[in-house]
Specification:
Shape: elongated
Number of helices: 2
Distance between the termini: 50 Å
Helix content: 40-55%
Radius of gyration: 21 Å
Largest sheet: none
Structural class: mainly alpha
Order of helices and strands: HH
Oligomer: single chain
Strand content: under 5%
Length: 61
């Protein structure tokens, strides 16, 4: 899909340098950076298990 992004100069230079250094296209480097950023920013689920003996969450203090 095509879209237009306005990048800060320093970000453009860093992405362009990475593309040159790795022999990949600018598009590939941008897609990889976005995927990594989005996966790190994904909300993490916290699972609270009830205490089997008392039927309530354990005290973690």
């Amino acid at each position: 899909m095509r879209t237009t992004l306005t990048l800060d100069d320093d970000l453009f230079m860093a992405l362009n340098e990475r593309a040159r250094a790795t022999g990949r296209s600018f598009k590939e480097v941008v897609n990889e950076a976005l995927r990594r950023g989005l996966s790190e920013a994904a909300p993490r689920r916290v699972i609270v298990r009830p205490d089997a003996r008392r039927g309530r969450p354990p005290d973690v203090t």
